[in-house]
Task: structure prediction
Amino acid sequence: MFFALGLIGCPLEHSLSPRLHRAALQASGLEGEYELYVVPRLPAGEQEMVRMLERLRRGEMQGINVTIPHKQAVMRWLDDLTPTAQAIGAVNTIYRRDGQLLGDNTDAAGFLADLEAGLGLTAVDQDKDRHALVLGAGGAARSVAFALLQTGWRVTIARRSVANSQWVGFGGPNARLRFVSMHDLAVESYDPLVRLIVNATPVGMWPEVQGNPWPVGEPFPAMAQVYDLVYNPAETALVRAARSVGLQAMNGLGMLVEQAALAFERWTGLAAPRTAMAAAVEEVGR
Ligand code: NAP
Result:
């Protein structure tokens, strides 16, 4: 069987997904390809989006990844969503089951796995009152917040724009979730229970490598660890600043690899060759 896989989004030129999935196909001994399909923001890209999804429905493709700006917009064309994708409200992986198009989200599980592997923060620890500060309120922040809430964290989202109706009801009625303005982040950081800071904004990403989403001049919470979803550059300004005061900090490359590994498993039914996938993007993380 030939595995025709690909990514839809815009822009795509810096995507590492082809490298990850081509390495996975090769290491698994599968014939296939992973291509980039530029689908412009809707409504301009609507025809192209529908055409791609029809290819998947007809079995001409076996799997599609979705990235900015379509993770939410694509949902209206899918027949069903996994409970995770439904709860997060965003899809990054699509596949066919019994002739139906199913939308899934592997970002949350990818984040959790890497958080555990990289920072040693165990998956479920409902007994501890652990507070996480998530910077940003976009699609990635939703996956991160979902993952953290599910594993017993109290979560504060720091956002720069106040209006964001897409968060209404997120995490259910008992979700330990709050929102603050980016300007009030410093106040939050004095909570001694803050154990984790996650950057889910693009701030610090190449080429604007000097950008740091943490408020200028504010000390980090003393007991916090830092996870930056940005991985290019490998050591972002945020990660560097956290390390310079002795905090453990890491970038999001491992999350990228793990979300891809989980997508590959959905599409092929095989265990993903994670070592080969990580090796394919290794130099980006240095
Ligand atoms: P998104 O949906 O566009 O959301 C970005 C969020 O960051 C929004 O809340 C936005 O605020 C905020 N933001 C943007 N610029 C900002 C600034 N200068 N100051 C403060 N806040 C700012 O993007 P996303 O999909 O969530 O992705 C966010 C980042 O995570 C990207 O760098 C992406 O590459 C990375 N990511 C990494 C992985 C991984 O596997 N490592 C996975 C997913 C995403 P507004 O709403 O006000 O614009």
About this structure: The chain has nine helices and twelve strands.
